[in-house]
Amino acid sequence: MIGDLFKTIGQLDDPRFLRVILKSIALSVLLFAVLWAGLGALLTQTELLQTAWLEGIADLFGGLLVVALTIILFPGVAIMVVGLFLEDVCMAVEARHYPSLPPARRQSIAEIVATTIRLGLTVLAINLLLLPLYLILLFVPPLNLLLYYAVNGHLLGREYFELVALRRVPPDDVRHLRRRNRAAVWTVGAIIAFLFTVPLIGLLVPALGTALMLHTYQRRISLAGS
Q1: Among residues 179, 136, 137, 173, which one has the least CA distance to residue 157?
Q2: Could you read off the pLDDT of 136-163 as tens digits, one per residue?
Q3: How far apart (Å, rounded) are the C-alpha atoms in residues 8 and 3?
Q4: Percent helix, percent strand, percent coil in the chain, to nearest 5
Q5: Burial 191-214 (b: 16+ CB within 10 A, else e)
Q6: Range from 28-42, 57-71, 104-118, 160-174 that averages highest in pLDDT
């Protein structure tokens, strides 16, 4: 798995891969800004307290809360645009590392869009349900981070694996493959979740996460066939 990570990082000098990374950064910055602005407007324009100085403290705390909420919800929003450059990432990685692979299964735009939206909404919904617990644990590090990485390791691992695997195998086979490799899928998902929380690096994660999961998928398929 460390080798998969180094392969992903090592391809940053590939012009074809770099173009996708730049598109990923641009989309991620836009999404992050919209999410941040939306949460900020929601919290700062809501007056919960009548006393001015108490409201000022509440606004300050609200600013910190906006940052935390943006980080928590950003992966779910970001995964919904992965489909826009999924094929570009996978083709760049396969051209460099797996040139002997046959062409990928043909997927319609509707299938890709429906899959990415469904997966993204799943990540968003579960993180929203856990939001009260995240807030309770906000001042209890490292329990807050452990919960976030554990939950999103499962969610992001599943979502990225399905997006990558659906290019090669039908949906029923994808679920079977994911369950059979659940430990590896969760570990890669936890790495992706961790990278999302690293300043600036998180903006590259939609593309890097896709490449990393593609390497994991190909390695697990190779092991299963050997």
Answers
A1: 179
A2: 887 788 888 899 999 999 999 998 999 9
A3: 9
A4: 85, 0, 15
A5: bbbbbbbeeeebbbbbbbbbbbbb
A6: 160-174
If we measure between CA atoms, which residue out of 170, 188, 160, 180 comes closest to residue 225?
A: 180
Query: Distance (Å, rounded) from C-alpha 215 to C-alpha 212?
Result: 5
In the block, tokens 């490292």 appear at 142
- Burial bucket for residue 120 (CB in 10 Å: 0-12, 13-18, 19+): buried
At position 172, the amino acid (one-letter code) is: D
Give the range of the structural domain holding residue 107, as residue numbers without chain letter.
2-225
Query: What is the number of structural domains in the chain?
Result: 1
The helices-and-strands tally (H runs, E runs) of the chain is 10, 0
Q: Are 74 and 32 in contact (CB under 8 A)?
A: yes
Return the amino acid letter for 123. Answer: V
Contact between 112 and 86 (Cβ < 8 Å): yes
Taking residues 53-71, report their average pLDDT: 63
d(CA 152, CA 75): 9
Cis peptide before 141 (omega within 30 of 0): no
How many CA atoms, within 13 angstroms, populate the side-chain half-sphere of residue 2? 0
Mean pLDDT of 122-133: 88
